[in-house]
């Protein structure tokens, strides 16, 4: 289906929105904005905000930081730690930290320097917050390795839930600080604008929304009915969750989004009742690797290789410069990743080329997405 073809029947669409949607409405919904709202003492109460106090450490992607922390914990061999500590009469914090750093090897997911710094700061956080006492670490390490690591993993899960609770309270207050009903009104209008963009004919029963935000979707708009809305990671009205992708890190199962959705969120079916979607639109989503599993599942469900579905990835310009190149790079990476999941490797490798030739994939600003008769 080309962009300039006339479609007499209503166009069926799936709109996928991320944090950029809330930012467009004026909501201070970034993790870094939450961090800036905290006092110095409050930042010390959670491992993620504590790590952010190191200005050289990029913590904006909390889920990527979580994965790095888990990898570090998995590498801490209790027996090795015990042997190093036993070799010294003093079990001072600095000696323990330096020993642990020197005993670890690098991982592909981070540089050696980054790993050393992160190991030091993760353990320092546990010490300073009294979750682990340096003078009792030797006793802590007497446990078998899997028990030692399990205790550290339990501490990390507590930190994840603590962060989620704090961020949920912050977002709730930010919405309350909007003038009465302003967020809902803005949300309704912008959803309709996104749905109507580049479409000649549609109605509220033909459109579905998959939101990766914690803010709730409006009950209805001119072109959307709440029966077709889904908040993937929970809403401010119940629980919210963050986590890692499940494909490459099964050993961290309890921290994966899939596991946490199944155990901590209301079990509701995906409200896409008609799989004959014509267009999938993306707005405000970073297309990060932590959410690749969702996109792979959707692309499989809609069979984008053999179907006529059009993919539209919207972007905004800001800071007085174009961001199209950055969005194209994200789309390129996502589609190529999806192609790697194909059994037919030739099809997987030429997927992006096929979509471009068939005029079924676009990276554009919303205001440039117009319908031509």
Automatic annotation (TrEMBL):
Q: Which Pfam families match?
A: AbiH
* Annotated protein name in UniProt: Phage abortive infection protein
The organism is: Streptococcus mitis
Instruction: Please spell out the taxonomic lineage of the organism that makes this protein.
Output: Bacteria, Bacillati, Bacillota, Bacilli, Lactobacillales
